[in-house]
Amino acid sequence: MKSYRKELWFHVPSRRAFVNITPQVEECLKESGIKEGLILVNAMHITASVFINDDETGLHHDYEVWLEKLAPHEPVSQYRHNVGEDNADAHLKRQIMGREVVVAVTKGKLDFGTWEQIFYGEFDGRRKKRVLIKAIGE
Ligand code: ZN
């Protein structure tokens, strides 16, 4: 069995953003040489997510509005976590959008459903953060 590990770095210039990282994950899969197996992609920070959904700007806007209703950034004083920091909402947004995805690898390709793409969800950006890729298979 083959095993592959890589860290991808992101530096999102805004507080929040969704980045389609499917091309980078496909590049990693190619580099791994794995044709049949599984690939895990997870955010290595508790204020960022990795999730799968549609690459559609209307939907991304809807996520932003929905997440702000669930866990508004302001006022930062509403959160007990915000003692010396202001990112409590980012932790909550990360929880709902998820930590990781696992995708089946079939014939050397990501075995997606219709319209599925992998996203990095940033909720407390303006600094360097990592995503872990781990692939196993043959
Ligand atoms: Zn925090």
Q: How is the secondary structure organized here?
A:
Elements: E1 2-11, E2 17-20, H1 22-32, E3 37-43, E4 48-53, H2 57-70, H3 88-97, E5 100-106, E6 109-110, E7 117-122, E8 128-137
Antiparallel strand pairs: 1-8, 2-7, 3-5, 3-8, 4-7, 5-6
The structure holds zinc ion.
The site of zinc ion (ZN) has 4 residues, from loops.
Structure, briefly:
By secondary structure, this protein is α+β, with helices and mostly antiparallel strands. It is built from three helices and eight strands; from the N terminus they run ββαββααββββ.
Describe the structure.
The protein is α+β, with helices and mostly antiparallel strands. It has one domain: YjbQ-like (Jelly Rolls). The protein has three helices and eight strands. Strands 1-8-3-5-6 form a five-stranded antiparallel beta sheet, covered by helices on one side. Strands 2-7-4 form a three-stranded antiparallel beta sheet. Bound molecules: zinc ion. The site of zinc ion has 4 residues, from loops.
Largest sheet: 5 strands, antiparallel
Percent helix, as a range, is 25-40%
- Spell the H/E element sequence: EEHEEHHEEEE
- Overall mean pLDDT: 98
Shape: elongated
In total, how many beta strands? 8
CATH overall fold name: Jelly Rolls
Report strand %.
Answer: 35-45%
Residue windows where pLDDT falls under 50 for at least 5 positions = none
Count of separate DSSP helical elements: 3
Q: Strands across the major sheet, in which order?
A: 1-8-3-5-6
Number of domains: 1
Structural class: alpha+beta
Named CATH architecture: Sandwich
CATH superfamily: YjbQ-like
Cα distance, first to last residue?
5 Å
